[in-house]
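hiii, so i know i said id send this last week but things got crazy w the move. better late than never?? heres the sequnce for the chain we talked about at the cafe, plus the structure i predicted for it. fair warning i was half asleep when i ran it
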Amino acid sequence: MSQLPLPLRSSGVIWSRVEPGFHVGSRGGDFLGYVERQSDGSYRAHDLRSQTVGDFADLHSATRAVEALECARPTEGAS
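okay and structure toks below
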């Protein structure tokens, strides 16, 4: 598994390429979601429960969509 270059690492989020076309995001060891490259060249983003977030033209947009979901999630203990 390899880490992606710095442009895909922001706000403490690390994106790792598990295999060609499959990227997994984490922060502090917590799984955030993943992105899969589709046969048409688009990128499908999934949240931490493997629910589809959407399809995107590029990897950067797909990873940012997953990160945005993580930022919008309430923290533990918040009411």
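btw Residues 8 and 47 are 17 Å apart (CA to CA). thought thatd interest u
miss u guys!!
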